[in-house]
Design goal:
The chain is α+β, with helices and mostly antiparallel strands. The protein has six helices and eleven strands. The strands form two sheets. It has an eight-stranded mixed β-sheet, sandwiched between helices. It has a three-stranded antiparallel β-sheet with strand order 1-2-3.
Amino acid sequence: MPLPDTSPAAALHVRARDPENLTTAPSAAPSGTEADTGTESAVDAGDAVLDNPAWSSLSGHHRSLAEGNEHVLRYPEDVSPFVGVRDWGHPDVWDAILEVFGHGAEVSVSHADPLLPEGWTPVFSVPGVQLVQTSRLVPRPDEEAVELGAADSAEMNALVERTKPGPFRSRTHELGRYVGIRRDGELIAMAGERLHPAGWTEISAVAVDERHRRQGLASRLVLDVAFHIQQRGDRALMHASAANTSAIAGYEKLGFALRRRVTFGAVRTP
């Protein structure tokens, strides 16, 4: 069965502009870049779980949600399109994918660019970046942020539909803590937690209604989510499309830095 909403536009933040105006948000220090290897905020690229975060998340923190086998794990379709593969080089991996997804299915591929066997076809590929917190990140709780859950699912999905921050399903809120800001009872901004590789939590679904942008709401929510991530002893990471340079610059201003460049896409089984 094909995974829904795996188009390039839905895969990540693919718009070139920054609708939340993150780049105008106040920051604690100048932005970090891949070249900041000589500063105290330099990124340690040595945490191997971040090279395969979907597998680490599905085989660890999200094991109760995982479906699959010893080589391939996936989320239910109404939770997330992400798929975790233990080792793309294992000789049994392609048969294992077929066992989980069946024939003629679209399978999400992230943080990898495997050589496809005969009969397998690429569907799309989106260059992306992985950002991680540095010592410059100063998270803080937000007084206006309210926690969101199952009762808010319809509003969350409506906001995502309007803003297109990335893949979000009817049960994506089950992946972690999600928060939002309401004005006159309407949900106008949100952000939350997605992948949970060991020792880390990904901040995702950063979305602000167009009528309420340029107020720093996205930055406030990112810092709130990061605060609670750090309170429980994890570190924060983010992903974005490489084309979304404005949002990347905004996240860097908040205290994130580039760890590695990645690829997000999908392949079709034979």
